[in-house]
Design brief:
The chain is of the alpha/beta class. It contains eight helices and 13 strands. It is globular. The termini are far apart.
């Protein structure tokens, strides 16, 4: 009898343990799948704790793949290649593109790219699209989304197999700041449509063109690009929003780097949260009669101060054509073209 009771108790305990494991598995899966709907928008009125996100997956390479032996004693010594929170800083010479492609190609990933060609900025679209075909995730599935108020002016560009372009019509605006401000809303909405068909997304400026390889070395959960104009400066000189009344406010002594608004990306759920938060904070500022110093770029920098990017791209990934190349910049991959702002912007 005691033996029978012991077996019953043991069976009940094992069943309870099994149910507990099953619950944890389902709960964690629900959190991932429901991340778009369940994530609250984090307002940045107070001093929230920093959040650091990473993404992990098996780094599987084909058998017998041969590549140059890596070293922990030799490499780039003229630049920093890791942040204080252990995110890689990607420079030429810090990665092996053949090795990385062999890891990512079997995963059959799809990368989306957004570009806004509104008003006279449509003139830059042809160069952007043609050079992206030559350098941006070549050999991978890419879907470029062009947001424009001039759909009939979108150039015809031949795209390789597995790559496509979709044009989305948007209203014109009399102020370039308003065009800039609406980007986050449109990116948020687009991601909500793409979440079952796309793995990563990059949001890029149209008044730029590609000059060199931009590939899977840039992928991460949340990816930021260091601004080429300020990477040598002390953070006291960064053009953060300095008014405490704005939700984009970054206090003196705070901030890591100054990031570009013209190039950022990552996993869909992370970029969705960024866009949703920046949009909400921008709209809340607007109700209070505040416009941040550099619109969505100011809100992006505020967001990434407390939500650390999991990968940081060096200024190679958004240089400026009017600048001579610095010695540490061995290659320019993507760069803003020289332009007359008075000519292309509705107002300056």
């Amino acid at each position: 009898m005691h033996l029978l009771n012991g077996k019953i108790v043991t069976g009940i305990l094992l069943l309870a343990l099994l149910l507990g494991v099953l619950y944890c598995y389902i709960f964690q899966s629900y959190r991932v799948v429901g991340s778009f709907e369940q994530t609250d928008v984090t307002q940045v009125d107070g001093p929230p704790e920093a959040v650091i996100r990473t993404h992990d997956f098996p780094l599987v390479v084909p058998n017998h793949l041969q590549y140059k032996q890596p070293s922990i004693l030799q490499g780039r010594t003229d630049v920093v290649t890791v942040t204080p929170w252990l995110a890689p800083v990607v420079w030429e010479g810090t990665f092996n593109p053949v090795l990385l492609d062999s890891i990512y190609r079997p995963r059959n990933i799809t990368v989306a790219a957004t570009v806004f060609a509104v008003g006279k900025y449509i003139k830059f679209l042809k160069d952007f699209l043609e050079t992206s075909e030559q350098h941006f995730f070549v050999g991978f599935k890419v879907h470029v989304y062009v947001f424009t108020d001039g759909a009939k002016q979108v150039p015809q560009v031949k795209m390789a197999a597995g790559r496509q372009l979709t044009v989305r019509s948007v209203p014109s605006s009399r102020r370039w700041q308003e065009i800039s401000a609406r980007r986050m809303e449109m990116i948020q909405t687009l991601i909500e449509e793409l979440r079952n068909s796309t793995d990563y997304i990059f949001c890029l400026d149209v008044d730029s063109k590609f000059h060199g390889h931009w590939g899977v070395e840039s992928l991460g959960s949340l990816v930021a690009v260091i601004h080429p104009g300020y990477y040598r400066d002390d953070r006291s000189r960064f053009p953060y929003e300095r008014r405490p009344t704005s939700r984009a406010y970054v206090a003196p002594g705070e901030g890591d780097f100054y990031y570009c608004g013209g190039a950022f990306g990552g996993r869909l759920q992370e970029v969705h949260l960024l866009a949703k938060t920046c949009r909400a904070n921008f709209e809340a500022d607007a109700k209070d009669g505040i416009e941040a110093a550099w619109q969505e770029e100011s809100h992006l920098n505020r967001y990434m101060w407390t939500n650390k990017p999991s990968k940081v791209l060096s200024p190679e990934y958004l240089w400026q054509d009017f600048k001579s190349r610095s010695p540490e910049v061995h290659i320019v991959r993507f760069s803003g073209v020289i332009k007359n702002y008075a000519e292309v912007r509705p107002n300056v």
